[in-house]
Amino acid sequence: MRKCERTNRGGTNGGGRVAARVAARAAVVVEDLHRSFGSGSREVHALRGVSFEAREGELTALKGRSGSGKTTLLNLVGGLDTPTSGRVRLDGTDLASLDEDARLTLRRDRIGFVFQSFGLIPVLSAVENVGVPMRLRRVPAKQREERARMLLALVGLADHVDQRPGELSGGQQQRVAIARALANEPALIIADEPTGQLDSETGRSVMELLRAVVRSEGVTALVATHDPNLMELADRVVELRDGRLVEDEA
Predict the structure, then answer these.
(1) What is the pTM of this model?
(2) What is the pLDDT, as a whole number, of residue 236?
(3) Residues 142, 149 contacting (CB under 8 angstroms)
(4) Structural contact between residues 126 and 168, judged by C-beta atoms closer than 8 angstroms
(5) Residue 217 region, left (φ>0) first, then alpha (ψ -120 to 50), else beta?
(6) Any idea of the CA torsion for 170, 105, 28, 89, to the nearest 10 degrees?
(7) Which InterPro entries does this entry report, sorted A to Z (predicted)?
(8) Fewer Cβ close by (within 10 Å): the C or N end of the chain?
(9) Domain boundaries, the chain
């Protein structure tokens, strides 16, 4: 079942938002994606013919129960895995056309990752953690620190730049992780259950921040979440069930 986009016909502002959404470029295109693991009687079909688009400047939420294929889909879109069949295009680039070195460069330069467990380096300060992706690109130290501080200010942590992860709350650590994901000005942010270790109030605050960042920075975000209370914050909701897409609603 694929639901049609709902339009707001009640006013100019709503219609303008819908028109902007329709006009937005598809940053991520997933076409008939299949992913299987194992073979013979032990073969597991994690994804079964999934197709959808994620548009530039929008936050798309992936929902579904554990085992529905959300993480597998994120891994394929992020170039961390290769499909059994089908293809993924990011900004017009077919990921299947890239060798491993090119995919590594793509992940470093064009994709920002946010993990449920934050993934921060304990011995580094917040500003140093945000600077890690830029260090990998050999961005000069002064430029690296200036951008890291700017991004921490963007996520509301201007007063915590010198604190290490252990000195920050869970919500603050996830904000550092979001700032780090933006370090190299990515086209796409991939977040796998970014609120999974947070209480409901903090989780909603982090999701609202992601939405605000997507709109202010003009990036695309794919966010896997099992929390139905966070769906209303997304521009689009894609539901997976047993590896199949069962809903795609804006």
Answers:
(1) 0.85
(2) 92
(3) no
(4) yes
(5) alpha
(6) -150
(7) AAA+_ATPase, ABC_transporter-like_ATP-bd, ABC_transporter-like_CS, ABC_transpr_LolD-like, MacB-like_ATP-bd, P-loop_NTPase
(8) N
(9) 57-80+98-249
Per-residue pLDDT of 196-247, as tens digits, reads 888 888 988 988 999 998 888 889 999 998 877 778 889 999 999 999 999 8
| Model confidence pLDDT, tens digit, residues 121-179 | 999 999 999 999 999 999 999 999 999 999 999 999 999 999 999 999 999 999 999 99
Q: Are 57 and 215 in contact (CB under 8 A)?
A: yes
First to last CA, the chain: 14
8 Å CB contact between 173 and 98: no
57-80+98-249 is a CATH 3.30.1330.10 domain: no
Residue 166 tokens read as 């252990």
DSSP bridge partners of 36: 45
